[in-house]
Backbone:
């Protein structure tokens, strides 16, 4: 028993001595020991060069000039610096824009005319469940935008019942279409080249219209709802994150799913939800 206790004491002493020695060695010796320890370097602490850098001026497609220095005249003398800095601060955006993108519910896809492509019974249930989910999220939604296609209008109508006082706007730019030829190509889906040119310009215009940082005049964060289509939403996400837009067909979105994009006043963009439909019972989930 005494022998076992002696071994334990010796082991603890040796560990303490080793720790004290390691702590007391010189910087050069520390570097030697650190070679054997796991390390995690932050990218800004190294000389790491990213393959693609973030474009801080990504929302230049909007008519508003986003650089505060371009809208404030520089001071002519040093005594004007305080006033200049104050005006500069006032010209900087401070609010975050939250864009909630909703894919429409399941619809009668076999019909030729858009007016006949109405929501199925399941699609109406999905829209109702999405409305309930948005209500539970307690978001301070200020406006509902919807595509002018029948399935998007009907989905927005059902969601709007949960927000009866919210204003509505319809937008042709949000209609479904072929945003850009996907890479890799899809063998089962091959629109005419002319359709990409026509739809692509329109969907890019929609991105420029809705995706930009807040203006300096906007004091509070805003939340807007966009009820539209899978191709449009997937293209928006790729563009907003500055990913190759040709990648839009590499992921799917369920009917009635929620995608949440945040545009910070700094111009940084993040996705808080992508095609979220976990709030629906599994037998209510569908995708095409």
Residues:
């Amino acid at each position: 028993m005494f022998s076992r206790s002696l071994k334990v004491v010796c082991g603890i002493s040796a560990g303490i001595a080793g720790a004290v020695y390691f702590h007391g060695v010189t910087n050069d010796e520390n570097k030697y020991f650190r070679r054997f320890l796991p390390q995690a370097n932050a990218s800004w602490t190294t000389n790491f060069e990213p393959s693609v850098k973030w474009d801080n001026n990504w929302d230049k497609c909007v008519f508003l000039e986003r650089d505060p220095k371009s809208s404030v005249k520089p001071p002519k003398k040093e005594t004007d610096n305080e006033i200049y800095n104050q005006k500069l601060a006032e010209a900087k955006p401070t609010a975050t824009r939250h864009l909630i993108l909703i894919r429409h519910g399941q619809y009668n896809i076999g019909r030729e005319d858009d007016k006949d492509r109405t929501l199925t019974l399941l699609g109406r249930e999905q829209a109702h469940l999405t409305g309930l989910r948005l209500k539970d999220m307690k978001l301070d939604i200020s406006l509902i935008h919807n595509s002018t296609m029948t399935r998007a209008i009907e989905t927005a109508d059902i969601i709007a019942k949960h927000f009866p006082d919210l204003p509505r706007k319809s937008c042709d730019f949000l209609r479904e279409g072929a945003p850009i030829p996907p890479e890799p190509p899809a063998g089962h889906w091959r629109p005419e080249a002319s359709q990409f040119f026509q739809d692509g310009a329109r969907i890019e215009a929609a991105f420029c219209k809705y995706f930009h940082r807040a203006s300096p005049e906007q004091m509070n964060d805003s939340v807007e709802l966009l009820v539209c289509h899978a191709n449009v939403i997937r293209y928006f996400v790729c563009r907003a994150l500055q990913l190759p837009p040709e990648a839009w067909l590499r992921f799917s979105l369920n009917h009635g799913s929620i995608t949440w994009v945040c545009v910070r006043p700094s111009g940084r963009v993040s996705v808080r939800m992508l095609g979220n439909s976990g709030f629906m019972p599994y037998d209510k989930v569908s995708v095409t």
About this structure: The chain is about 35% helix and 15% strand.
